[in-house]
Amino acid sequence: PAGRGSLYADLLSQPCRAVRILLQCTGTPHTLRSVALRKGEHLSPDFSKLNPMNKVPVLVDDGFVLTESDAILKYLVARCGLADHWFPSDPQRRARVDEYTAWHHTNTRPHAAKVFILQVLVPAQTRSPVDGPALDRALSDLNRTLDHLESMFLRRQAFLCGTDISIADLLCVCELMQPLGGDRDVLESRPQLQRWRSRVQSAVGPAFDHAHSVLYSVRDRYKAKTSRARL
Ligand SMILES: N[C@@H](CCC(=O)N[C@@H](CS)C(=O)NCC(=O)O)C(=O)O
């Protein structure tokens, strides 16, 4: 927002990446203020004052403090006058984006996140092996979500909510990328969703890899660790 806005974020967090990609690919001036979750920086007194829920992302725009990626993305489109396709002003096209984002937070988000948490985060934090049956259950929940993405949202169109990219695609793609941190491409056997991911990637340009560079490093470390363990 006009160069004054700050995004408090950790780029290993999916909703933070979605906001960062929107800001970067639209050339919206902002300052990225890093909040390292692994160091517990989101629990510091200063950050607690900003967001008593101790979660990232948080946007601060000229004294206006906003939490929740969904709200932040929609606010940015209006506040910064971003292209209409990101969050259309037409009531029905907008309702399609709201329809996905409402569904997202109880489907794509928890299901993809859980795969990463069970495969990468929990074993790293507790130094215990992966809970195989729990991971299998998470993968089967995620599979049902992927089925719905294909059969409902992408049924007849190039992007989740229409013929052009919207904030729904950003929220979704950032979640579906997360299991890559454990060297797992959840779209491996899903050509329709792979084509959609490529379209999103081309639509946002270098902002995509830029925002995901931290996740790519996590994947590289994970691969190095698992190949050492196999020796
Ligand atoms: N619904 C929120 C979710 C935010 C969220 O869960 N952020 C996580 C990182 S992905 C976080 O800050 N976790 C720290 C914690 O809960 O302690 C959004 O979409 O912004």
TrEMBL record:
<dbReference type="Pfam" id="PF00043">
    <property type="entry name" value="GST_C"/>
</dbReference>
<dbReference type="InterPro" id="IPR036282">
    <property type="entry name" value="Glutathione-S-Trfase_C_sf"/>
</dbReference>
<feature type="domain" description="GST C-terminal">
    <location>
        <begin position="90"/>
        <end position="226"/>
    </location>
</feature>
<dbReference type="InterPro" id="IPR004045">
    <property type="entry name" value="Glutathione_S-Trfase_N"/>
</dbReference>
<dbReference type="InterPro" id="IPR040077">
    <property type="entry name" value="GST_C_Theta"/>
</dbReference>
<dbReference type="InterPro" id="IPR036249">
    <property type="entry name" value="Thioredoxin-like_sf"/>
</dbReference>
<dbReference type="GO" id="GO:0004364">
    <property type="term" value="F:glutathione transferase activity"/>
</dbReference>
<keyword id="KW-0963">Cytoplasm</keyword>
<dbReference type="Pfam" id="PF13417">
    <property type="entry name" value="GST_N_3"/>
</dbReference>
<protein>
    <recommendedName>
        <fullName>glutathione transferase</fullName>
        <ecNumber>2.5.1.18</ecNumber>
    </recommendedName>
</protein>
<keyword id="KW-0808">Transferase</keyword>
<dbReference type="InterPro" id="IPR004046">
    <property type="entry name" value="GST_C"/>
</dbReference>
<dbReference type="GO" id="GO:0006749">
    <property type="term" value="P:glutathione metabolic process"/>
</dbReference>
<dbReference type="GO" id="GO:0005737">
    <property type="term" value="C:cytoplasm"/>
</dbReference>
<comment type="similarity">
    <text>Belongs to the GST superfamily. Theta family.</text>
</comment>
<dbReference type="InterPro" id="IPR040079">
    <property type="entry name" value="Glutathione_S-Trfase"/>
</dbReference>
<comment type="subunit">
    <text>Homodimer.</text>
</comment>
<dbReference type="InterPro" id="IPR051369">
    <property type="entry name" value="GST_Theta"/>
</dbReference>
<dbReference type="InterPro" id="IPR010987">
    <property type="entry name" value="Glutathione-S-Trfase_C-like"/>
</dbReference>
<feature type="domain" description="GST N-terminal">
    <location>
        <begin position="3"/>
        <end position="84"/>
    </location>
</feature>
